[in-house]
Each structure stands twice: as C-alpha cells, then as structure tokens.
Amino acid sequence: MSFGFKGRALRSAAAIALISALGTPVLAEEITYVSGVVGKAADNFAALVKPWEDMTGNKVTMVPMPASTSDQFGQYRLWLAAGNTDIDLYQTDVIWAPQLADSFVDLTEVSKDLAPTHFPSIIQSQTVNGKLVALPIFTDAPALYYRKDLLEKYNVAVPKTWDELTVAAQTIQDGERKDGKGDFWGFVWQGNAYEGLTCNALEWVKSFGGGQIVEQDGTISINNEKAAKALETAKGWVGTISPSGVLAYQEEEARGVWQTGNAAFMRNWPYAYGLGNGDDSAVKGLFSVSTLPVGAEGDSSAATLGGWNVAVSKFSKHQEAAISLAMYLAGPEAQKQRAINESSLPTIVALYDDADIAAAQPIIPQWKDVFLNAVPRPSAPTLGKYNEVSSKFWTAVHETLSGNGSAADNLAGLEADLTDIKGDAW
Ligand code: GLC
Fold it and tell me: Is the pTM value of this prediction over 0.85?
C-alpha cells in the first residue's frame, strides 16, 4: 500500500516536471469537492482553487450542498457508508471529526510542516486517536451584530446582558415601527430545528452559567435551573423582538433580514461581516460587532466554537491530488484569500498579524480572542453519538421556544433521553 502510494508520488513528480517543461498539463485529474453553501462561498470557490489548478493542471468541481450543516452531515454519512467514489474531498464541520474519522485519510504525515502553523487546539479538534482526520480551512465564533446608527438614534448602549439586549431591541423596534418601518425587528438569530440552534442555545445556556449540555468529562449537565432560565428568556423573544418565523431561520434567513436593514441586532458568524459591508448591502458601514451578551453581570459571554475543515475520502480514486488540494486549501495563500473575500477567521496563527487581512476585514484580528475562548460543543466527549445528542438538544429547545412544554419539563425529558443514549459510556 505505502509502496503503491510512493510509486504514484514519483509518477506525479515526473508529471509536474513535464508540466513545467512544456507549459501544458499532461496528467489532468478531475477532482470533486463537496461543500455546503453559505453566503458567496460557491461564487468565490473557483477563484480560490484557480492557483492550485494552474499549478497542478488538475480541475476541481464543487458540488454545492444545502446550507444546513445537519443536512450535509446526513447526506455525507450515507455517501461514506456506501463507499462513494465520486467525491474526493469533503468540507467538514468542526464537530464531525470523531463521527466520520474512519472514512477519511490520515493527514498527519503529509501536513507535518503545515499543521504546526495552525492553532494547536484546532488541529487537536480534528485529531481522533492520533489520526488527523481533516485540515482546518477556517474557524468560526459568532458575534452580536448591532446597528451603530440606531443605537445612537435611540441613545442605547451596546447591551452587555441578554435583558439589556431585550430592552434595547424592543426600544429600537418600537421606534422604527412608529417611523413607518412595519417589517422592522429587534433581534434575529437561528431558531430552526438544526445544528445552528444547538449553537445559539448553547450560548444562552453557557452565558447564564448553565454548563455545556454534556461536560468535557462526559457528565450530562443540561437539566439545571440556569439552563431553564436561559431558554425561557429566549422564548420571550419569539413574536416580540424576533419574528415568529425565527423558529425556521438559519444563518442566511437572519442575514437576509439584517442586511436589508430590517433588524437592530443579529447573532451570526463572521461571514456576515464582509457581506454586510458589500456594495449591495443596505447596512454597509452602519454596523459594528460585539461579543454576545451574558445572563447576569459576573457571568461570562459564550460564543460557540465553529469552523470548517477539509477531509480526503478514503474511497477517492484521486487521493494524491485530493491531498494536495486539501493542503492548498488549508495553507496560508488560500486562507488569506478566504479571509479577505469572505471574512473567514484563519486557523493559521500568523495570519492574525497580516496587514492586508486587518485592513480588509477588521473583525478578524479583533476576533482572535473570541474564538480562542469559544465554547466547544460536546462532540469530543460524546464521540460517535454527538449528532444524536445535538439533535435531542435542539429538539428540546425548539419545543420550548414553540411553547410546547416548559423549559424545565423539556430539559428533564432531555436529560432522560441523553442518559439512555449514553448508556454505560459515551
Ligand atoms: C457555522 C459553524 C459550524 C456550525 C454551523 C451551525 O457554519 O462554523 O461549526 O455547525 O454554523 O449552523
């Protein structure tokens, strides 16, 4: 096996030499990359991979997937279980590594020079039993987006607690509606029943001092009064400062309301920063970002740790080229381009001191500490069961927000479900 791989590597080195000598590619391979599509990621992808295509003579086709990470996960798990050979690379969510580890190629050896330039905690999150399952391409930690102009207009300070946010959002919403903006809302976020709601609700719970659903040592902690209070607080927003439709919102729906100028506050990831400052945005230059609010003074703000990686399928028939593309996408050139064009947070430490990135997307250097202190979802302690755990959690939260049962009752039921799923051990 390793001999075969070396043989291919030698042939490919020869092929690259031929490319340089003749100026035309001689060993073009067609590589397929699947990725969910949020914002302008699909539009930008062709330009992102172009330097790699020029360098290697290979061609990359991106297969766009639905924006919901939960939907992607369901589809990828089926494809991988069936040994799909059509897809060479998968763009993977930070939470998936333990669940999909067996289907991907170990990238430890090939990235031994590149990996140490990344934040060690991110590399760690993609390492399962010593195997580097995927290479990080960007990290993620959400912000509270707020309209500077409207805070000024209504003489409101940037809210520090969720209660302050509630009051500020209501004040601005009432004022804007009186001014004839009937569609204006105080606060938009992600309330659909999917992984994004797990992220939002973990932030509420953690920032009220209610723990992390399942703690790092595997203890199920979610059934507690602070968590219930956090969920009841969020329930109070639905139909008041947030549209009832927020219960079907993902990232892009929230951004849609925000970017057309119809919301005072938004919870979203950094990708919305660059887009919000685009020429086609109604809020260009009018907003800023802050850390998410806390439950009460003395509590700490909590941002859920997100992020995306690239993994090479072990069923790929173009493994060597796919690995080369993964290395390229995780490397400094592509990460810089993505940071500038999509306001994605790099995972390479040095890029936080890059002047071009700081000038194009000031949120990036500003957000380094936020993501370094971000709260991980319990995918490491729950191992292969994370998806089930998360889906039980977001369901209990969605029921509570929809008025089906109190937070306390739904969290008691959730604890029982999680205990069953855990069994003797995660
Ligand atoms: C963002 C995060 C990802 C998270 C998803 C939830 O894409 O980077 O980690 O799972 O949002 O919607």
Answer: yes
